[in-house]
Amino acid sequence: MARHSRLLLLAVAAVLLLHSSLSSAAAEDPLIQQVVGRDAEGDEPGLLSAEAHFASFVQRFGKSYRDADERAHRLSVFTANLRRARRHQRLDPSAVHGVTKFSDLTPAEFRDRFLGLRRSRGGLLAAGSAHDAPTLPTDGLPEDFDWRDKGAVGPVKDQGSCGSCWSFSTSGALEGANYLATGKLEVLSEQQMVDCDHECDPDEPRACDAGCNGGLMTTAFSYLAKAGGLETEKDYPYTGASGTCKFDKSKIAAQVKNFSTVAVDEDQIAANLVKHGPLAIGINAVFMQTYIGGVSCPYICGKHQDHGVLLVGYGSAGYAPLRFKEKPYWIIKNSWGENWGESGYYKICRGAHAKNLCGVDAMVSTVTAIHTQKE
């Protein structure tokens, strides 16, 4: 009986703590309030409530619309996304979901404009372009690890309305590998890959990297190995649209030595991350449109990857009050700007309870750079 009472007290305390944390967040940003509270009628946001949130959203993110009809349509989409954020909050209680800069987009519009990861029907790899990473020892791995603290991660960027996520994942991994090889962090160009990379899967010739229409990190690594390397962001700046290739070999700043794919095994992923630097990964982004912060650990999430991101570290304990445990998590750098998520980053839980959650463990590749003398 005493044990039952203690468990009940723990449950009540945890729920109160979650409510307190979300209420605190709502106090800091009224845009979160629609996730914390509900209208008297139940789950449906009232018209006045939705209109008020929409007005705040428009002002905060500098939105503008063509005419009154377009504004009315976006208000309708926004209202539907309020409901969607509430559903995500229930399915993913250890994270905070609410209004983001994408809240006036339908799920289909969001996928078309801000995702873009291509997956070959034949599998992850283009045949002959990469090999499986060797098995690494996993004894003695640090409990927590973050390449940002070690200077191997560049600034958060914004891909804009272009399905070029794969190029940001690729450039981020090569930035880290080049840092390990040279001791210098070079911020590399995504636009070079958007304009110049048309590498195809040999097993599926029509599946090619295609700028804002999508691509794949391993075929991008293959392109870079063949082209000779990647220019800096400064020399080949990002425009957010596919254009004519302007690659200049004399301005190459980082070169691919080799690349490989990592087994669907969290320990091997962690070992490769620690040894080789940030990893290019794919993920199912269904919960990311409404994500504001915390450790995402949804009860249900598809494993089909549709978004390319960069794995930069991991943590041993992220608090998840409704599950009465501390959850380990991956730290992921995204390419939607610093005004999304946790200053541009996403955390998703890992561990025995969450193997390959949202497909995060199943499309992982590592790259090494050619060593050059540090200046």
TrEMBL record:
One of its GO terms (biological process) is proteolysis. It comes from Lolium multiflorum. Keywords: Disulfide bond, Glycoprotein, Hydrolase, Protease, Signal, Thiol protease, Zymogen. PROSITE patterns: THIOL_PROTEASE_ASN (PS00640), THIOL_PROTEASE_CYS (PS00139). Residues 54-110 form the Cathepsin propeptide inhibitor domain. This is Cysteine protease. Belongs to the peptidase C1 family. InterPro entries: Papain-like_cys_pep_sf, Pept_asp_AS, Pept_cys_AS, Peptidase_C1A, Peptidase_C1A_C, Peptidase_C1A_papain-like, Prot_inhib_I29. Gene3D superfamilies: Cysteine proteinases. GO terms for molecular function: cysteine-type peptidase activity.
